[in-house]
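Entry 12.
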Amino acid sequence: MGLKGFERRLERLVEGAFARAFKSSLRPVELGRRLIREMDDQRTVNVQGQVAAPNHFTITLGSDDYAQFAEIEESLVRALAEEARTHAREEGYGFMGPVEVLIRRDTDLGVGSFSLSARFKEGAGGTSGGTLVLPDGTRLSLTGGAVVIGRGTDAAVRVTDSSVSRRHAEVRPAGAGWAVVDLGSTNGTRVNGMPITERKLDDGDVIGVGDATLRFEAG
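Predicted 3D structure (tokens):
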């Protein structure tokens, strides 16, 4: 199911304004298929019995394809990273750090040819950065302090939903990363659909308060 939706999302990137200009024989969905295959092929079980997948991907294209993909690079990289997170959630994989996708050029590669390398990369020491993607698509950078989510006017992330408490939940530093904590809300806080009191956040986790959802991105 995930890959089908991914195919539709990526194909939309080369429709409309890009349709006339995008002449590469290499389709974005081919990159997505390879990325997912590398995640599955390289997954490993750590000492705690958790399944971990690569989180750092480098895609190398020939000069002509690189020039074509440059027009949609930002959207493409974001879509590929999101698909990696979605696939990890569906398969129960964890990551050692934030998901990163890089696109590079190799003049020796011909049109339609590419390589994709995947590796495990730990997050930086200390409290790493992070981003909350709000319901309207706005991106809020986490810079070290706690962020309150709620209906009150003093909440950093304000959600105007009657089922959301004035101070509903808080995203706060936790070791080298971030955690979400329910602040005794009336209707509770969810992560990936499951009720929580406190939960350390992984890259791509979805926080639910009332009818609103926010996505956490590490790094």
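Annotation: The helical segments are 2-13, 28-42, 63-70, 73-91. The radius of gyration is 19 Å.
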